[in-house]
Amino acid sequence: IFMTGSENDKRNSGVTGDGQPIPNEYSVNLRTFRGALCSYYGASGYGDSRFFIVDAQDLTDEDLNSLKEVKNEDGGQLLPDELINAFKEKGSVAGLAGRHTVFGQTIEGFDVIVKICTSETQGDFAEPVTPIYINSITIGEYHAG
C-alpha cells in the first residue's frame, strides 16, 4: 500500500531540493520480504518521496519462475534460488525484488501491517480512501538471534 504526503509533496516528488532526480538505490541484498518499507519510484526509474509497505501474496510456480528470469547486467540470474525460496517462505510480492529501495523492515507489529494493507483503497496506485497516519514508530538496529 502506498503512503503519500501532501498534494504538494506528490507534485515535487522524485527530485532533490536542488531539482536533481533521486536515484533508485535498490539492492538484492536488501530484501522485499513481507513488512519491508520501500521507496516508490515512477516510470522514470528514479526515487520518490512516497513509500509503500510490502504485504505478502501467495506466490505461484509462475511467480517463482518469473523471479528466476530477472537478469543482472551480465545477463545471468539476478536473484539466487535461495532468495526466491525465502520469498515464498517469508512472504513477499512477486516482481518487487531488486527493483525498489528497501529502507526498513517490520520486525514486530504485523497486525498493524495487515490493518494498513487491507484498508479500502482507490485509484491506480491503491491510495487509501481514508488517509492513514503513522503516529509513532520505533526505529532501531536489528540484531539477529
How does this structure look, described?
The chain is of the alpha+beta class. 22% of the residues lie in helices and 16% in strands. The chain is built from four helices and six strands, in the order βαββααβαββ. The protein has helices at residues 7-12, 61-68, 81-90, 110-117, and strands spanning 2-3, 36-41, 47-53, 102-105, 121-122, 127-128. Strands 1-3-2-4 form a four-stranded antiparallel sheet. Strands 5-6 form a two-stranded antiparallel ribbon.
The overall average pLDDT, rounded, is: 79
Strand content: 15-25%
The neighbouring-strand order within the major sheet is 1-3-2-4
Instruction: Please count the beta strands (DSSP E, at least 2 residues each).
Output: 6
The number of helical elements comes to 4
List the uncertain runs. Answer: 1-11
Beginning-to-end CA distance, first to last residue: 30 Å
What can be said about the biggest beta sheet?
A: 4 strands, antiparallel
Order of helices and strands: EHEEHHEHEE
Determine the structural class based on helices, strands and strand pairing: alpha+beta
Cα-based radius of gyration, to the nearest Å? 16 Å
Work out the helicity level: 10-25%
- Overall 3D geometry? globular
